[in-house]
What does this fold into?
Amino acid sequence: MAVDGELSRTSLPEQIKDRILAQILAGEYRPGDRLVELRIAEEMQTSQAPVREALRELEALGVVECQRNKGTRVRTVSGAELREMYDVRAQIEGYATELAVRAGAPSKSMLNALLRNMRAAARANDAAGFAECNSAFHRAIVEAAGNGVLRDVWETLNIKARTMVNVSRRTRGLVELADSHRVIIDAIATGQPTTARRVAIEHVLANKPADTED
It folds into this structure.
């Protein structure tokens, strides 16, 4: 887990939090893995205090858990909890898509470009890259909704889900999964908010982990 150069002292805990979160999302740290303050501090060329603060922020996000006498570990999310996240996320993304259509954004060309990136990662069988492109696609719609609170709630759920979702568990291949986003673009292009909301909800629920994936 190499870090190039010494971290800037500006908002140091925030920078460390972002680095650790990126490593978790990239699979360098897996659910259940221990996060050792001293080791992270040494790797990031800093003291333990900002690392400790960064871990507290990640705990507030629900990404890690700190237990007395056991240290800090990447949080393991149960299949049942993940399914609940998908239920909530479906409603959030449905509402965000409706708001985005009412606002006249995002553009079809931008979403098509994001979809092409997703398909490229899928064809390369790059699960990590696919997950990043998938998040970028949905984030573009959520941001286009223009509601900051909605965006923050979505981002928290997105981060928590990505820390434990194993894309290879899906019953569909990555290319097919990427192509399933086409209906969202088409629904947004119709300019009909309620239709777009329904399609977005159906998309999320169609990818909800099955009860057997615990």
The chain has two domains: 12-74, 79-206. The CA atoms of residues 79 and 213 lie 6 Å apart. The two ends are 30 Å apart (CA to CA).
